[in-house]
Amino acid sequence: MYMFKYILKRIGLMLFTFCTIMLMCFVLIKLLPIPINAGLGQDRELLEARLRERGYYDPIMVQLWAYITRIFTKGDFGIGINMPGYANQPVWDAFVSRLPPTILINIYSTIIGVPIGLGLGILAALKKNKWQDQAISTGVMVMIAVPSIVYAFMIQYIFCFKLGWFPLIMKDGYDYLSWDMFRSMLPAVLSLCLGSIAGYARYTRAELTEVLTGEYMLLARTKGLTRGQATVRHALRNAMVPIFPMILSEFVGVFSGSLIIEKVFAIPGVGALYLTSIQVLDYDFFMLLSGFYTLIGLLAGIIVDISYGFIDPRIRMGAK
Questions:
Q1: Does any domain span residue 12?
Q2: How many Å apart are CA 118 and CA 204, to the nearest integer?
């Protein structure tokens, strides 16, 4: 019962925060003038007439009510105004068509980053204060300090340009599950997962090192368990309690970290679309994509909090 009430409360707070942020975004973006780029091959007078019909020149609060009404009654998130390639087209259709590459590169980065990061963290904890631990800790500090965009340029120069292992940019087409497409995505995936690997390794080492020094570990050894058995059966299970929620939040929150990476590797995903919408001041694209990334950030936080209660039965979220 405590957990159920806690989940409802957190979801309510999340929705309130989401609505507040989106209201601020809507009002602030609508205070700017509506630029119409006539160089996109669109009829300026026809587009202005359509915008006027949709209420783009009405007062802001009238526009807000019409915008919310269209979303909930018709599923209409607006049309593109200045977005190259999507002018005068439904925003939702463009968003859905650009979503698969963004999802795939983040899934691939999580699949690669989690086992490597956990493995390095476990090795560093088991070899505490030895050369393996010092080497891993030094590498982790360097990877955490360097921004992912620097990794992107290094990977492009070394692996794509010098060695020629991968193409410089993502392959065109919609065969997202083919080997050629996966190979063209790998540079972006590696750029994203290096920071995640460092984070997983650091937290895993810290948690496992603390658990290994616990009194119950000494008790397990005195009962006849080997060090490996005690580590697998007790230490790792307890260390994963704070680490597993971090993996969940990282998986959800990594979508927001792929904005620049998508632009660098010319990945036709949501991140590149979002940056372009800000540059060209396309209102409807900006609102939909801002809502998408805002919701991702809020979901990452609530997933972490809720997952604690399911991972460790001793934790009762919301109990007084």
A1: no
A2: 6
